[in-house]
Amino acid sequence: MTEQRTDQLLRLLDVAASPDPAFVASTAAILQPRVRAARSADRRPFARLRTDLRLATHLLVSRTRAPRGVLVAVLGLLLLALLAGLIALAGAINHRPIANGSLILALHGQLRVIDPEHGSTRVIGPPGEQATQVSRSPDGQLVAYWRPDPAGDQLMLMGIDGGNRHRVAANVAITAGPGPGQWSPDSRFIAVEVKFEGASRILVVDVETGAGRFVTPVASSAHWPLWSPDGRWIAFRRDTDPYTRVLSIIRVDGSEMRDVSGHLDAGVQVDGANSWSPDGRWIYFPADPWVFRTNVATATSTRLTWEHYQAAAPALSPDGMLLAYIISTPSNWDLYVANSDGTGAHRVLNDASDNGWSADGRFVLSRWIPSDQPGGLALVSPDGSGYRLVVPAEQACPDRTTGCDVDWGQPRP
What is the rounded CA–CA span in Å between residue 407 and residue 216? Predict the structure, then answer.
């Protein structure tokens, strides 16, 4: 029955129109969910644009002729809505949240959590902890750090909220090595360089049990551990004698140790293990005065940085596409980004260090130390389009002559 015939029948009844309460209730029950869904849809991006587009399409194809002024007004509203939608889309792309969680900083022995979006900070852990060499798990839940103790250095774990603080690797008497802990990709284990009975070794700690076990043998002087993407291998610098340093890998159970750096130029020695490509094919490492990568399968290394410039601190982006590193200048270091094979190198920030990438690959974390202002911790765009200061120097790294004890859950140089 058409709407017109229904209307005619109602008029012929000539009775008072008082709807049945049961009919009202059942109708409301049917319509309310639809109204809520419509309101929710209206709050979504570009909802107004879709509504205006439907209205304009209806008027243009409808058999009923609309006045010219109405059509012009509707089309104008449509264009304005389209422009507003494009502006909103650009804003969303440029200001989408950083998908890497909080920065963890140790300043004067005090642990701080920094929000990289807004620069807000909060203190975690007890006062007087004397925390150093801080690292954060890739899942953003745990913080590891060293604290001194008369009986020996202690490796500590704590939730990022400051809770569940406890010691791990208490089953061995060790002294902290020079670098922070390196987390396995699944956040289950930490590899640390330690001194044990006078030898530098790699210790792997199970986060769940707290137990530590040595991976490298006593006879090998091991430094700067780095996990493979599948968590089955650890790369490290091995000192075969006081004058020879090579890049080696070893299985997590301590088996199948082998050298992978291959032949380097005369006098060039490996400084550490910095980045492992996501496909497991390459390891990136510094060997003064250049940056190299080695093919793990063939143990063949290739120099990636310019011959007449000193380069250091290589860090590969999480997707394996870009490489950040620093180049020495007469007064400081400058931050560069290149393709993963070393081509297309370009400077992205003067007077800046390389503290590794964000997990989404959008930024390089840098300690920016210009000569004409205090600087601080900055997020740098790898395309060279600019930087954003997160925390001023006095709140993060007030001493210009020393490094910044900060971590973002990614392998850092």
Answer: 25
Taking the C-alpha atoms of residue 409 and residue 413, their distance in angstroms, rounded to an integer, is 12
Q: The whole model's pTM is what?
A: 0.77
Phi/psi of residue 328, nearest 5 degrees: -70, 140
3-state secondary structure of 283: strand
Q: Find the helix or strand (DSSP H, E) in which 225 lies.
A: strand 221-227
Average predicted confidence (pLDDT) for the chain: 85
Going by their DSSP bridges, the two strands 333-339 and 322-328 should be labelled as antiparallel
DSSP-derived secondary structure letter, 260: -
Gap between the Cα atoms of 212 and 169, Å rounded: 5
Question: Which pLDDT does position 406 carry in this prediction?
Answer: 96
- What does the DSSP 8-state code read for residue 342? S
CB within 8 Å of 83: residues ≥ 6 apart: none
DSSP calls for 131-199: -EEEEE-TTSSEEEEEE--TT--EEEEEETTS-S-EEE-TTS--EE-SS--EE-TTSSEEEEEEEETTE
Q: Are 309 and 345 in contact (CB under 8 A)?
A: no
H or E element that contains 236: strand 233-241
* Long-range own/partner contacts, residues 290-294 (CB < 8 A, 24 or more apart): 291/323, 291/325, 291/342, 292/261, 292/264, 293/340, 293/342, 294/247, 294/260, 294/261, 294/262
- Cα–Cα dist 223/312, whole Å: 17
Q: How far is CA 355 from CA 218, 329, 336, 368, 389, in A?
A: 31, 18, 12, 10, 14
Burial of 142 per CB tally in 10 Å (0-12, 13-18, 19+): buried
Residues (pLDDT < 50) of the chain are 1-2, 6, 9-16, 33, 35-37, 39-41, 43-45, 63, 74, 86-94
Are 100 and 360 contacting, i.e. CB atoms less than 8 angstroms apart? Answer: yes
Burial of 59 (0-12, 13-18, 19+ CB in 10 A): middle
CA-based radius of gyration for the chain: 30
Contact 318, 357 (CB under 8 A): yes
CA distances from residue 218 to 77, 199, 214, 239, 254 in whole angstroms, order as listed: 76, 7, 9, 12, 11
For residue range 171-195, what is the model confidence (pLDDT) as tens digits?
999 999 999 999 999 999 999 999 9
